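Incident review: delayed structure delivery

Summary: a single-chain prediction request sat in the queue longer than the usual turnaround. Root cause was a stuck worker, restarted by the on-call engineer. No data loss occurred. The affected request and its eventual output are reproduced below so the record is complete for anyone auditing the incident later.

Affected input:
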Amino acid sequence: MYEIAFPNLGIFIEHLPNSIRIGNFSIAFYGMIIGLGIIIGLLLTWKEARRTGQKEDDYTDYLIWGILAGVVGARLYYVIFRWDYYCSHISEIFNLRSGGLAIYGTIIGAVIALIIFCSVKKKKFFLMIDTLIPQLALAQGLGRWGNFFNMEAFGRSYDGLLSMQIRLDCVSPIMLNQEVLDHAVMINGVEYIQVVPTFLIESLWCFLIFAVLIIYKKHKHFNGELLCIYGALYGLERMILEGLRTDSLMLGNTGIRVSQALSGLIVIAAVAGFFVLRNLAKTTPDLQPPLAVDDGNAPAADTSSEEGSADRNDADTDTDGGKTAADTAGADADSTKAGNETADTGTDSVKAENEAAGTDADRGKTGSETADTGTDSVKAGSGTAAGDVEPAASGQTEKASENKDSEETK
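Output delivered after worker restart:
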């Protein structure tokens, strides 16, 4: 007889191990899958860091603290909402091998660690989380297959295309509720539960989120945009599927599923955050997405944007300097033009003075002729001559003066 099957798909698995043994030590497939997700995620993160001009070492350094914070957060989240059990079993809190880790606790712990890391290292939080978030979705998709090997994280009773049958004695009692037990089926004397494979649905959905983020990341408009998209898509999916789960953590005796309520809040926060960050990005340089660079020419992380800003400022300064030089050249040209016009005016003035001098010379000539006339008049009469000699002398004096002025003008 089989242990697990998808009968409507024709898939039957006789025996499904959940670990391998090395001597007396067993390694759970769940842990191996998580480790594989971390390795693949780190490699993809390094690649994205190179593409966007960041330092790979920043993500390697963060990984250590992120993993520790994620494990602590996952366990705390589970213990807090199962305190009715752990309050009387304190020693069990530290027994991680017995299970009891929550993905939302992992995410919360890792995000808190990243906030602290960015604060200490002076890094851009939204840039780093956008670099990491696609790999988180991929790791979640892989991690759900750990639930498959553990025969857990399934939903209510279901008899449809994706219906999953699990032999009842292979399932942990904590995963069962009365509704599932009431719809158990007997096949050849063996009892099976028949349920919704929520692990499978969530895994496929997380792979889809990963694909969307990978495709869209090159077209994003601001840092933090991928985080918002992830929050909206994952929160929506988890809010729906959590309502089907049989092992949900409850908020006290309220009957409210903690992860379902949190998922709804995350969707709201993601949508609101999208519009807030999009508006802030218009005036906040740290929210501007980095330009892609060649792998061999990637500048240092975070400093690239500052250096780019400085280069742009220098370029602006050079442009302003060029504009000022051009304005100065224009002013010099205008001054030269004005000088030429002044010179032309001076030439016209000299010409006018020469013409005036010529007029004065003509007047002197006229005076001389008058004097000659006066001399002739002297011959006619002494009285008249005496009166005319003075004008003649005056005319000669004016003529001499005007000739002197003309020479000075020349």
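Verification: The CA atoms of residues 145 and 212 lie 21 Å apart.
Action items: add queue-age alerting; document worker restart procedure.
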